[in-house]
């Protein structure tokens, strides 16, 4: 009988200690911050994946990589290699509309009335001259050679610059 009581007491001790360990583990996990990073969580309201370089194009009505358009460099630093300071232009199929993606701003659409004329939106003008020039209130703020894609204005070889 004592053997049965001893076994029962040992069994109760083991069960109670297991319960206390489970509670301790649960308390520990409650205090640890959960990793809230969810793959694909950086989608914008249109479903464009920003981490993959996509942004919503109002002109094309789809997610695009703006940097695949025509690069315009800031007029105060025309030789910049910092693409985060550049603006990019995408055109529609018939060329009467242009969407400009400005750094740290939403894009806007410019329209032109006829071939050879500038594209216009409010006080912005995109002028086809030696590539493209973007003006705001008549002042040149960006310009580029009209070629599609990112440009490297320097050299990868430091000896070439000497």
Task: Give the helices and strands, then pairings.
Blueprint: H1 2-31, E1 55-57, E2 62-64, E3 70-74, E4 87-91, E5 97-101, E6 108-111, E7 119-121, E8 124-127, E9 132-136, E10 139-144
Antiparallel strand pairs: 1-2, 3-4, 3-10, 4-5, 5-6, 7-8, 8-9, 9-10
> Gap between N and C termini, in Å?
97 Å
Strand content: 25-35%
Rough outline = rod-shaped
Tell me the strand order in the biggest sheet: 6-5-4-3-10-9-8-7
Give the strand tally.
10
The poorly predicted ranges are 151-162
| Rg over C-alpha atoms, rounded to the nearest angstrom | 30 Å
The number of helical elements comes to 1
- What kind of sheet is the major sheet? 8 strands, antiparallel
Question: How would you state the average pLDDT, rounded?
Answer: 78
Structural class: alpha+beta
H/E element order: HEEEEEEEEEE
Please bin the fraction of helical residues. 10-25%
Structure overview:
This protein is 19% helix and 27% strand. It has one helix spanning 2-31; strands at residues 55-57, 62-64, 70-74, 87-91, 97-101, 108-111, 119-121, 124-127, 132-136, 139-144. The strands form 2 sheets. An 8-stranded antiparallel β-sheet has the order 6-5-4-3-10-9-8-7, with no helix packed on it. Strands 1-2 form a two-stranded antiparallel ribbon. A hairpin with a 5-residue loop joins β4 and β5 (97-101). The N and C termini lie far apart (97 Å). Residues 151-162 have low confidence and may be disordered.
